[in-house]
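We treat protein structure as text, and this decision shapes the records that our systems exchange. Such a record has a labelled line for the sequence and another for the backbone structure tokens. The record that follows is passed on verbatim for readers who wish to inspect the format:
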Amino acid sequence: MTNPDNLSRADQVRQRRKITPVQRKPIPRTQERISREAQSASRVVSRTGNYRGTSTYTSNNRRKSVYLPTGIPGSEVRLPSMPQFRISWRLLSGLIAIAMVILLYVMLNGDTFRVNQINLTGGIRVPAEEVKASLNVTGDSIIFVQPEQVEEQIIATFPDVKSAHVTVSMPNSLNVVIEERIPAILWHENEEQLFWIDQDGYTFTVRGEANLPIRVYSETTPPHSLGYVDPLTLTDEQAANEKTSRNIAPIDPNFVAAIQKLNTIKPSDTPMIYNQKNGLGWRDPNGWQVFFGTSTEDIELKLNEYNHIVVAILDKNLQPVLISVEFLHAPYYRLEP
């Protein structure tokens, strides 16, 4: 055997590398050690699940820390934190559904949501008490009130009202804004005030006073518009189905325009008159009646023609009782009644 002392340093290193490492003998496991390891394994808690939704550990006491700056660089104040509670969407949806059912029940049966106040604005001549009494919604549940139907009811009941706008104000109020018709003509029949007529040809009851309506005196009612049907002549079933006639004014708007035009050319303080045969006109200061028909067509030419006829009559020293220029190319006058 070679003496290690006679080997070179390189040979010594090679020899050390060939030495087999010492094999340690395993420590024998006693029964006491096996029991202790089993107890330790039973206390292990799994904090994460092996698949989604099966976590065996949840924390309901997570707290969110809140820090407030103190104004000093590098320093903050930590406030006491509250635990964060998480509610599932299904539970939240269920709670909302239950709350809506309870609210609906209260609105249907509770006195808090029954109509007991109607706020009316815009009325001048139409009494607010009459409008409120006609609606007949007091005591009804607010959720059953349909503003469109209330608006139609007001317009159908009160011809004075041109338009109505109804809104619901929770929990138990209705807000009604109406626009009244403006009288343009005051129609007299046999010296009695019959009704007012507005610019569009709608008639309505005389209430109070109006600013300078044109007075027309007649022995009959004015001519109706083409296609108009008098509601008084209809049965209840026909009136329910007759929707188109409601949008047709009782009086022809062209007839209203003719009255307004003639009112600007007739002598002042002279009442305007109407009859079915000759149309509109007035009583001339000279003592006769003059008529121009029922339209504004060629009204200026008719007026010039009338003035020429008057000059010719006065030159002949005649006293007619009637002059008609209803037809531009066929004027005439009558000397005897």
Remarks:
- The mean pLDDT is 81.
- Helices lie at 9-17, 31-42, 89-109, 128-135, 147-157, 236-241, 253-265, 299-315.
